[in-house]
Amino acid sequence: xxxxxxxxxxxxxxxxxxxxxxxxxxxxxxxxxxxxxxxxxxxxxxxxxx
Length: 50
Description:
The protein contains two helices and no strands. With about 50 residues, the chain is mostly helical. The chain has one domain (about 1-50). It is elongated and about 45 Å long.
């Protein structure tokens, strides 16, 4: 029973992640943000975090 429950939780979490990623992709596309811009944006934040 526990194993089955765990599998269900994993699959639901995966679905949530896909939904999140899809919505993020849509918002980026709507804003007209290119992938390069997003990556450089992340890079600057990562560098600042260090």
